Amino acid sequence: MNTWTPPVNVNLVDLGFMDSRSKLIDLAAFLDRVQRVGQEGDFRVAALKQAIQLLAGDQPERARNILLSFSDPSMEPIPKATTQGAVGAVPPALG
After folding, report:
1. How far apart are CA 27 and CA 2, in angstroms?
2. What are 65-84's pLDDT values in tens digits?
3. How far apart are CA 68 and CA 57, in angstroms?
């Protein structure tokens, strides 16, 4: 029997702000480094920038929508794998 009840007065900003702030600064630093070396044209960087636009919006389910923006929407399997690992975003040929 579950008798646990969540606390009523939880301040989510107090709990998560510093961690979220740190992640945002890490992302900004990554994009700065990528730009400095001229790799901002990579499709994964474009996917990150698209996800940032979703993050900045006021639509509900931001996490779900961002996850889906990185996901391959195709339903048919490819005949043969060309790499041995995931790249984290949909390459232009598949998107």
Report:
1. 39
2. 999 999 988 888 888 877 77
3. 15
Angstrom distance (rounded) from CA 4 to CA 29: 41
The 3-class secondary structure across 22-59, one letter per residue, is HHHHHHHHHHHHHHHCCCCCCHHHHHHHHHHHHHHCCC
What torsion, rounded to 10 degrees, do the Cα atoms 23, 12, 71, 38 define? -20
pLDDT per residue as tens digits for the range 12-61: 899 999 999 999 999 999 999 999 999 999 999 999 999 999 999 999 99
The angle that helices 12-36 and 43-56 make with each other, rounded to 10 degrees, is: 150
d(CA 27, CA 56): 14
What values do phi and psi take at 22, rounded to 5?
-60, -45
pLDDT of 48-59, one tens digit each? 999 999 999 999
